[in-house]
Amino acid sequence: MRKKPQQQRSRQMVDTLVEATARCIAKNGLDGTTTPLIAETAGVSVGSLYQYFDSKEALIAALLEKLAHDLTRLLNQQVGLAGKLELEDMVRMAIRVTLTYMHEDEGFYLELARNWHRLPVDRVADVLERHIMDIGRLYFLQHVGKYPVENLPVRLFITYNSVLFTLVRFISQDSGLLKEDDIVDGLTVMITGYLRSSSAPASP
Amino acid sequence: MRKKPQQQRSRQMVDTLVEATARCIAKNGLDGTTTPLIAETAGVSVGSLYQYFDSKEALIAALLEKLAHDLTRLLNQQVGLAGKLELEDMVRMAIRVTLTYMHEDEGFYLELARNWHRLPVDRVADVLERHIMDIGRLYFLQHVGKYPVENLPVRLFITYNSVLFTLVRFISQDSGLLKEDDIVDGLTVMITGYLRSSSAPASP
Amino acid sequence: MRKKPQQQRSRQMVDTLVEATARCIAKNGLDGTTTPLIAETAGVSVGSLYQYFDSKEALIAALLEKLAHDLTRLLNQQVGLAGKLELEDMVRMAIRVTLTYMHEDEGFYLELARNWHRLPVDRVADVLERHIMDIGRLYFLQHVGKYPVENLPVRLFITYNSVLFTLVRFISQDSGLLKEDDIVDGLTVMITGYLRSSSAPASP
Amino acid sequence: MRKKPQQQRSRQMVDTLVEATARCIAKNGLDGTTTPLIAETAGVSVGSLYQYFDSKEALIAALLEKLAHDLTRLLNQQVGLAGKLELEDMVRMAIRVTLTYMHEDEGFYLELARNWHRLPVDRVADVLERHIMDIGRLYFLQHVGKYPVENLPVRLFITYNSVLFTLVRFISQDSGLLKEDDIVDGLTVMITGYLRSSSAPASP
DNA sequence: CATGAATGAGAGTTCATTCAT
DNA sequence: TATGAATGAACTCTCATTCAT
Q1: Distance CA B182, CA B194 (A)
Q2: What is the model's pLDDT at position C10?
Q3: Lowest mean pLDDT among B174-178, C86-90, D44-48
Q4: Both B16 and B99 in a single domain?
Q5: Contact call for residues D95 and D184 (beta carbons, < 8 A)
Q6: B residues 18-57 near A, CB within 8 Å?
Q7: In this complex, does chain A touch chain B, defined as having at least 3 beta-carbon pairs under 8 Å apart?
Q8: Cα Rg of chain B (Å, integer)
């Protein structure tokens, strides 16, 4: 970031721009998100955009940064609740929440997920992963004895990528042949079964 | 295709261009794949490109068409072999084969998988899905009684998307914390368990 | 117009571009009028052109729009004067004025007339036709009794197309065999006689 | 022409190409008439086109040359017939014939007339003018005493340009407000009156 | 001779970025 | 500081023409 916004007006400008970027991505897709358009959406001049961000990429990075921050807060609120649920209920709930997000904000999160590889996504991913890891650890700690999960990082990595991209693909293709409830049920069964399973891949 | 190649030379030109496109995508990514670059890679002028393809998109479509064709042949050869394996062995093999492809051709398939939503990917997807469906159906037919799988389309949709994108993400991030064997084992366990499970999502 | 010019500088830019387009058309012909050339003539970058005009065609349309506007003002000034003239003097004057225009601005209007069928010329044509119709109606209204002209639209359509394209052809070929005064006299005689004639095409 | 076609096969090739050019112009307009398209229309390779014509322009020139030749023959046949008609009938007939041509061959002649200034049209124009001049001279010679026409070249120049381009404009715009019969009648009245008038532009 | 594959200059257009005001 | 006018490299695509086969 070119300039630390120390005045309140500046901080607001930064926020406005970041939000405008999100709206552009949602409405026009990542490819249709141009700097002039972002500026116009923000009701600001392009010049101002470059006053606060070195480049388009920096702006998008800031957007993702904010996203990571928001998600952190969101997840922190949820951690407590999760512990009381049965594994299956928790998994199902997580899938449903994810699915809801995909449809929200005019498909903003969907577009992000589709284009993750073109985004400076590390920060968000890190935050998300750490949180999921924390939640997972906490959960299995509370249920120790019931599900002694080995190699948690791998399990969670497989889990959230499978869920996330299966849902993205499901929403994107929309062939009508597959029903949302079936997908959610299927994923729930698969993930629950996987997380309950003992680590050994091959039975002796 | 704008003009049907009548001389042998031009049939080769078409092939050269399609291959050059693949190389460009592998080396420069989809965004870095421009018509001048494709032409240069093919050792040809831009004009030649447009003698045989109506547009850049048509060229990429042709590439995917060829891919679909190649995959069809490849999978047809493999169908017979699959039936004799135990479910787990077959799943693990499929995952390993997929993983191998992701690393081949300088990451060409990886880049395709990453950018699936920007590609005229329907033909390939159709072919792949139908084949996977066929193989799946065949397999479970031969093992009837052992794994009476209900709602096969949903199961397979979840299965191949989970595997594919988990692997793509695994290769893309390369944090070094996760080991390939663990990912393969984990996926194998998850998918095998899922395909073996009875359809009912909630246990009684 | 893509963007409304808000600063004075940019309003001037729009004018500059439109004028440059006119100069290009005059100097290089319509086919030789390319966007790089227009930009260069205006002393501006191509990008600037596209900041204010959606396309080359839009730019040309704007030029014609301006032309229609200018002609409107010009004709409005002339309407009053016309009424006092005898029919023949008015016709001769109109022809002379048209001829003058054809030679002005390095043949700009000449080139427009030559290429009317490739131009988004409706607006100009409409304006011109309406004005000519108005002037004609007004004129014959003031001279009612003397020239009761039936089917005015047809008469004027024939009149101005005959004059315009005969002059265009005369200037374009310039074989030297035909003298300008003779053409003007001839057209004057023809048009005057035609407008004075009664409507019935066949004499009884 | 690059090469004198001495063999019969060659002469036929030239003809085929010229005819294909005409068909292309009629179907695709002058701008849509490309050398590859001409070749394809002729069922011949581009290479062959350039074997017989130095350039696209030469090909079009040849087309116009042929046109001039055809018109010469056509007009020669008609000269005799004209003399027996009254002036008005002859004028009306000429207008009607012209109008018919404009609609023939998918608008080929119409497109030529629209684009006369971009064509190497001199030869055709010369031929046409000379013939019209001949016919005119002959006609008025036979009717000497009735219409002693002074300055025939100017009169005929004005006459045929007025007729030709008024008709072209009429067909092109097709606003529906003007009726063909009215246009033909109007032109007939105008031209007949003009040709009958005495030379002096200003009445005493 | 005939073919049609190959060329490449040049057209219209876009957009991240700069800089005078 | 905020503005938005201005930039220009780079992209996709066309077509008259050439030349190896």
Answers
A1: 18
A2: 76
A3: B174-178
A4: no
A5: yes
A6: 31
A7: yes
A8: 20
Other C-beta atoms closer than 10 Å to the C-beta of A9 total 8
CB atoms within 10 A of CB A85: 14
Q: Which residues of C touch D181 (CB under 8 A)?
A: none
> pLDDT for B115-161, tens place per residue?
999 999 888 888 888 888 888 888 888 887 777 778 899 999 999 99
Residue nearest to nucleotide F18 (CA to C1'): D47
Main-chain dihedrals φ then ψ at residue D141, nearest 5 degrees: -65, -45
D144 shares a domain with D114: yes
**Residue D185 to residue C177, Cβ atoms within 8 A:** no
Count of structural domains within chain D: 2
Total-model pTM: 0.90
- Give domain status of residue B203, yes or no: no
d(CA A198, CA A204): 13
Q: Which chains touch D (3 or more CB pairs under 8 A)?
A: C
Distances (CA, A) of B173 to A69, D15, D96: 21, 67, 79
**A71 with A11, same domain?**
no
DSSP label at A29?
T
Q: Are residue A134 and residue A93 in the same domain, yes or no?
A: yes
How far away is chain C from the Cα of D200, in angstroms, using its nearest Cα?
8
- Whether A82 and A20 map to the same domain: the answer is no
Q: Does B104 lie in the same domain as B77?
A: yes
Q: Answer yes or no: is pLDDT of C58 > 60.
A: yes
Six-digit token string for A53: 């961000």
**CATH code for the domain in which residue D177 is found:** 1.10.357
Return the CATH number at C46: 1.10.10.60
Q: Tokens 């200003």 label which residue?
A: D202
CA A156 → CA A103, A130, A151, B186, distances in Å? 23, 10, 9, 10
Question: E5 C1' – B7 CA distance, angstroms?
Answer: 8
Neighbours of chain C (3+ CB pairs under 8 A): D
CB pair distance less than 8 Å for D169 and C186: no
Structural domain containing residue A42: 1-54
Asked whether residue B3's C-beta has any atom of DNA/RNA strand E within 7 A, the reply is yes
Whether the CB of C101 is below 8 Å from some CB of chain D: the reply is no
Find the range with the poorest average confidence among A16-20, A149-153, A157-161, B184-188.
A149-153
- Examine the domain organization and report whether A86 and A17 are in the same domain: no
Q: Which residues neighbour D86 within 8 Å (Cβ) at sequence distance 6 or greater?
A: none
Examine the domain organization and report whether A41 and A121 are in the same domain: no
